[in-house]
Design goal:
Layout: E1 2-10, H1 14-25, E2 30-33, E3 50-51, H2 70-82, E4 88-90, E5 93-97, H3 100-112, E6 117-120, E7 124-131, E8 134-141, E9 144-155, H4 161-166, E10 171-172, E11 183-189, H5 197-212, E12 224-227, E13 233-239, H6 252-276, E14 299-300, H7 308-312, E15 320-324, E16 328-330, E17 338-340, E18 348-351, E19 363-365, H8 374-380, H9 383-398
Helix pairs in contact: 1-9, 2-3
């Protein structure tokens, strides 16, 4: 099969979705390729249940959208479907609770409305080749190989997949011991009671007691609980060490071990809480995610590289294409995050050169694999900022 398009987007997560919509609305024949069966990336397949990075970072002021366009459109759609009138203030940040099933539904509705947009699910991107007048993209779906051609390609896979085919000099990755730890999230239905801060502290103490008595594995230590937007539903999130210095997110055996560890821990915690905490007595088994939440793998090397110091100093750029407002949330171990806030409660800019490399015209990259250093990635990897950079990549591709 051979088909031609104006823009091909690889990866249907928050960045890919945010790239596909303006691309199609701008009149480009757009192909969106996704390996899973639903769009939304970590927000649907890994059950990441908050939109971070959507709002202005100054929490002394009433909340305000940070990046207009697709990020705000999706945020408003989620607020409407979950009947939220405002985001939650959590410490020094605003976050919007989102429901993974509704995010998948919102993505479906938005894409279905665009006649210039074609979606392929269950399709694996298998090759990329630079041509004289554009790009050749190879895809395999259920054993059938396809060749697609376009003037522009946008890589939103989160893994810098295209860069790893093209050149070792086009991508970089932190050493295993520094990679931000993956998360394992599951949904817990029929959890009763009120869940304030005191409740969470008591629950944490109960889990520590279970670990000390060997009733729970050590991996349960970082379990955190957050209410869904719907009654009697909670999400449980656990950061996993994943082998620490031996962690390789591209090793399929290590990925399998990670997923198994997450499931084992989730079931252990569920059984323990059903027995020892009244609010969980009627809770059925947890709903597992399609995949663990991967926070960091490979990144492109672009014309410019956003740094943690740029963010901390609230640096702005003449050629900026989006704004970052989420603090640097560093998770280099499974003992919880270390936040580095910007020097001022103001956003920082993301320059256009972080989404392209001039040696490869027509190739753009956005989301978790944009050109940023390890520290900056701790901020810009969140879904709200990924939407903003995905949208910007599409706008840049439309101008070619």
């Amino acid at each position: 099969m051979r088909q031609e398009w104006d823009i091909i987007i690889a990866g249907g997560g928050s960045a890919g979705l945010a790239a596909a919509l303006p691309s199609a609305r701008g009149g480009a024949r757009t192909l969106l390729i996704e390996r899973q069966t639903k769009l939304g990336g970590m927000g649907t397949n890994a059950l990441v249940h908050t939109f971070c990075g959507l709002f202005h970072p100054d929490t002394s002021l009433p909340w305000a959208w940070l990046n207009p366009g697709i990020p705000q459109e999706i945020g408003e759609a989620m607020m409407k479907q979950t009947q939220q009138t405002e985001p939650d203030l959590m410490g020094r940040v605003y976050v919007l609770r989102q429901h993974p099933s509704l995010f998948a539904s919102i993505a479906d509705d938005l894409c279905a409305a665009e006649t210039q947009l074609t979606r392929q699910s269950g399709s694996e991107w298998t090759g990329l080749r630079q041509m004289a007048n554009g790009w050749q993209v190879e895809v395999i779906s259920r054993g059938v190989t396809q060749s697609h051609f376009s003037k522009s390609v946008i890589d939103t896979t989160g893994d810098a997949t295209g860069a790893r085919w093209l050149s070792p000099s086009l991508w970089t990755m932190a050493p295993p011991e520094k990679l931000y730890r993956p998360a394992y999230v599951c949904a817990l239905p029929k959890v009763t009671g009120e869940h304030g801060e005191g409740w969470r502290l008591a629950l944490g103490a109960l889990i520590v007691k279970g670990i000390r008595s060997k009733a729970l594995p050590e991996t349960a230590m970082g379990a955190a609980f957050r209410d869904s937007t719907f009654a009697e539903e909670m999400f449980m999130t656990m950061d996993l060490e994943a082998g620490q210095g031996q962690w390789d997110p591209f090793d399929p055996t290590k990925r399998a071990d990670l997923e198994a560890s997450g499931r084992l821990t989730a079931i252990s915690v569920w059984r323990y809480l059903r027995e020892h905490h009244a609010d969980f007595h009627n809770c059925p088994p947890p709903q597992f995610p399609v995949q663990a939440g991967i926070r960091e793998t490979a990144r492109y090397v672009g014309d410019e590289t956003l740094t943690g110091e740029d963010l901390a100093a609230n640096r702005r750029f003449e050629n900026e294409i989006a704004l970052a407002g989420w603090p640097m949330e560093k998770r280099e171990n499974a003992r919880g995050p270390k936040f580095r806030y910007f020097d001022q409660p103001q956003p920082a800019g993301i320059p256009a050169g972080c989404l392209k490399n001039s040696q490869y015209p027509g190739l753009f990259f956005a989301g978790r694999c944009l050109s940023a250093d390890h520290d900056a990635l701790a901020s810009v990897r969140v879904m709200g900022t990924c939407m903003a950079t995905g949208q910007a990549a599409a706008q840049m591709a439309l101008t070619l």
